[in-house]
Amino acid sequence: MNGKVKIGLMGLGTVGTGIVRLVESFQEDLYKQTDSSIEVSKILVQNPDKERDVFVHPDKITTNPDDLIYDEEIEVLIEVMGGIEPARTYILQAFEQGKHVVTANKDLLAAHGDELLRKAAEKGCDLFYEASVAGGVPILRTLVQGFSSDRITKIMGIVNGTTNYILTKMSQEGLPFEQVLQEAQDLGYAEADPTSDVEGLDAARKMAILATLGFHVGVQWDDVSCRGISEVTQEDIQYGKQLGYTMKLIGIAKRDDDCVEVSVEPTFVENSHPIANVNDVFNAVYVYGEAVGETMFYGPGAGELPTATAVLSDLVAVVKNIRLGINGREMSFPYHEKRLKSPDQVFAKYFIRLIVQDESGVLAKITQLMAENEISLEKVLQEPHGKGEAELILVTHSTSKASIEKFLQLVREFNIVKELKSCYRVEGGE
Amino acid sequence: MNGKVKIGLMGLGTVGTGIVRLVESFQEDLYKQTDSSIEVSKILVQNPDKERDVFVHPDKITTNPDDLIYDEEIEVLIEVMGGIEPARTYILQAFEQGKHVVTANKDLLAAHGDELLRKAAEKGCDLFYEASVAGGVPILRTLVQGFSSDRITKIMGIVNGTTNYILTKMSQEGLPFEQVLQEAQDLGYAEADPTSDVEGLDAARKMAILATLGFHVGVQWDDVSCRGISEVTQEDIQYGKQLGYTMKLIGIAKRDDDCVEVSVEPTFVENSHPIANVNDVFNAVYVYGEAVGETMFYGPGAGELPTATAVLSDLVAVVKNIRLGINGREMSFPYHEKRLKSPDQVFAKYFIRLIVQDESGVLAKITQLMAENEISLEKVLQEPHGKGEAELILVTHSTSKASIEKFLQLVREFNIVKELKSCYRVEGGE
């Protein structure tokens, strides 16, 4: 039964380098797991002359994707280039050649997952992508297999390490956003152009993948409502602390009555919730199932070796499937129709911070306005703000997003309100 | 491809009842996952007249195991009776009949896992047991598949909910062990005879299973060194708090240089370690892999529906394997030789609490004795204890268990030491 499996590797950046390293150092274990010796036989790179952190025989390096896609000896393609194109085209071509594919490419999966999976199934090929979400945490397998017999109703994820690092530093050290972002860039935790991380786009892609697998509904990246952390201020964080909350960039996917909501936004999490304690660059995915209740999965969200080992765990699965002759037969496609909630179906608690005139009756007028919009109040915090003004923090009971949006609009126009400072979703207290 | 799969259920206690409930309420989802309708067709019980929390047609109930084992229509047997015999015999008989088995029976797996798995493989049958460890947390799948490409070097588990509940209450409310145990019994969290939980035996069985799968070494329950929580005092917990530690019953499995250690013992965990915040009846398994680094998996360790859904996730896997024709072909057996560490190979930090004479030079004499035994000191805390005595807390740097045992023996005989109060392992600060 044992044999040799040749791999084509597309991309030799951080993750690609990790893959080459691990295949070498874990050769014996991989053999014991799969009855096969695994060899990275060709590597596609952009610049063959670039200096690498790992030794690769020059004969293996190529700049021509066809050297991998049309090499008949290569059975599995590992794609770690990132980006939509040309990765999408290469992968589709690989399926046409009957090759199995392992990828870490969240952008591609969140945009074209359905197309790729259908092509793979049609050609009897495997397509696995564990590394695309939460790096070293095997959360996709957990959703698909571990919770196959449960009905998942809520997924909360800290799935972007860069923003979690920034918010952790802001919370723990009282530093402003810009300064911590600069530090994160200096440490290599944030990219030179941090938009995708900071504005929540990266997290949105991962949440689309999690919601698709968790709810059996085809959610795409543009179904995810998305708000980043660049407007989060130190004042917000400090007022949240007073109320027992920690600020996190949280991806939330909920299913109620066959309708789903998926969003990424800066969120106050009650300190007692397990996800509130997930700090620095760590990721965590909290899953609530009707039968199982509360679970959480925690680990490194990125990094050379954590991501590489996730890719290789998929490779082990592909090679086992080759031995069993069942490639392409374990695919599961979303079987529930996609129905996205409208804003009047999305319910949450909200934290609202206002600057108001510091005079008698103001709180009464504001709470009156809330009541008129069917918003009830859980907590109030009022502090003087100088110049005859007061800082007013309102935390609502669970209320619809539509009501909150209408209320915020009215508040902006209200003459006793000087400024609407911020509004954040609150999670974790149910 | 779709069809009908008949199940025989052995046991209709808490978990068995949950299984009947979930098969019914999740029928549609199970069908979508497996292309098969699943029917619990026979149920083995001890007392057919007992009142049940769930409706079962009387025709399905039997007291004769042969009605399940020799029913040719039954393809899968679910065993949730517990205990070694007759469960072991029934399962072996079922394999002889070509039936697949799903079980939640940790005692059986930790004692006879190898025998059962070999028989299953010989007969081309599946044997899955996800529910045997950490109830609703799919940790066995995670170890086998999620970390298939990594080398796991450490597993730390809070795998017994009863003791975690007791220690949490003792820590948070300052109550003595006996009172909290009584409360836990009243709440149904602890059994009338709590020995198996309180003395760590239940946890030891689960750690044997985790170590076997994580390290690819055949660890049995009697390889696990085991100490319970009944001697843990409120004073120990309070002194630990002063030093930044939380008391937990921790199962530890470590592998160094191809030697393994597996133990269950009350342990002080540094508060910064993620497992320190796992409270009440929740379970968590912390896994350290060479490539992935730190990960943790958290959820309910027991309970009707969490355990039942874990059993059913295994059933889904079995039914998928039936459709794919690959039952019994995914077995993995330990491929590393079992070499257990001797006490001079087990290294950890230790917390030692002594009552000593409160006179000058005592600390010097004790630290001198430590140095002679190659133990170095990380922290010291001394407090008056009245009657010319002092309470002395010593926390060591990492040191061998053999050295600590020798030191404790010498301390007991030392004339300036009035009493050796306690000694606990300390984890989480590396």
Automatic annotation (TrEMBL), chains A, B:
<dbReference type="InterPro" id="IPR002912">
    <property type="entry name" value="ACT_dom"/>
</dbReference>
<dbReference type="InterPro" id="IPR016204">
    <property type="entry name" value="HDH"/>
</dbReference>
<feature type="domain" description="ACT">
    <location>
        <begin position="351"/>
        <end position="425"/>
    </location>
</feature>
<comment type="similarity">
    <text>Belongs to the homoserine dehydrogenase family.</text>
</comment>
<dbReference type="Pfam" id="PF00742">
    <property type="entry name" value="Homoserine_dh"/>
</dbReference>
<dbReference type="InterPro" id="IPR005106">
    <property type="entry name" value="Asp/hSer_DH_NAD-bd"/>
</dbReference>
<dbReference type="Pfam" id="PF01842">
    <property type="entry name" value="ACT"/>
</dbReference>
<dbReference type="InterPro" id="IPR036291">
    <property type="entry name" value="NAD(P)-bd_dom_sf"/>
</dbReference>
<dbReference type="InterPro" id="IPR001342">
    <property type="entry name" value="HDH_cat"/>
</dbReference>
<comment type="pathway">
    <text>Amino-acid biosynthesis; L-threonine biosynthesis; L-threonine from L-aspartate: step 3/5.</text>
</comment>
<keyword id="KW-0486">Methionine biosynthesis</keyword>
<keyword id="KW-0028">Amino-acid biosynthesis</keyword>
<protein>
    <recommendedName>
        <fullName>Homoserine dehydrogenase</fullName>
        <ecNumber>1.1.1.3</ecNumber>
    </recommendedName>
</protein>
<keyword id="KW-0791">Threonine biosynthesis</keyword>
<keyword id="KW-0521">NADP</keyword>
<keyword id="KW-0560">Oxidoreductase</keyword>
<dbReference type="InterPro" id="IPR019811">
    <property type="entry name" value="HDH_CS"/>
</dbReference>
<dbReference type="InterPro" id="IPR045865">
    <property type="entry name" value="ACT-like_dom_sf"/>
</dbReference>
<comment type="pathway">
    <text>Amino-acid biosynthesis; L-methionine biosynthesis via de novo pathway; L-homoserine from L-aspartate: step 3/3.</text>
</comment>
<dbReference type="Pfam" id="PF03447">
    <property type="entry name" value="NAD_binding_3"/>
</dbReference>
